[in-house]
Specification:
120 residues, mainly alpha, 5 helices
């Protein structure tokens, strides 16, 4: 999947640049450019204009870009295909060393019980 498809601000024909948006939200942009951005957003679809109204009413305008970046990261993570699990090996596929270790352990436990039974 192309990474630019996962960016929530690039669904428009001409996406708003993050730097321009940051300048607008922090008040560092001149009034002419602010007006151009506002005009573009108000002429867009109803959903986008509602989102723009919500951004205008937000109390933490400086944190909006951080929130957008967090949403983009979450989208990228959620849209990645799930990693396949490695299948477990069947008992027949276990290496000979493990079989020998198990046999030795069983012999030691059996010998212990035989010795304890002879001493009793």
């Amino acid at each position: 999947m192309k990474p630019n498809l996962l960016d929530i601000l690039t669904h428009q024909e001409v996406p708003i640049d993050s730097k321009k948006l940051n300048d607008y939200l922090t008040g560092k942009m001149d009034s002419e450019n602010e007006h151009a951005i506002e005009k573009e957003m108000m002429q867009s679809s109803e959903l986008e204009s509602d989102a723009w109204d919500g951004w205008q009413q937000a109390s933490h305008k400086k944190n909006i870009l951080i929130d957008v970046e967090d949403i983009n990261k979450k989208l990228v993570h959620q849209l990645q295909p799930a990693q396949k699990r490695t299948p477990r090996k069947a008992i027949r596929e276990m290496p000979l060393n493990w079989w020998l270790l198990g046999l030795l352990l069983a012999l030691l436990v059996g010998a212990y019980f035989i010795i304890v039974a002879m001493m009793a």
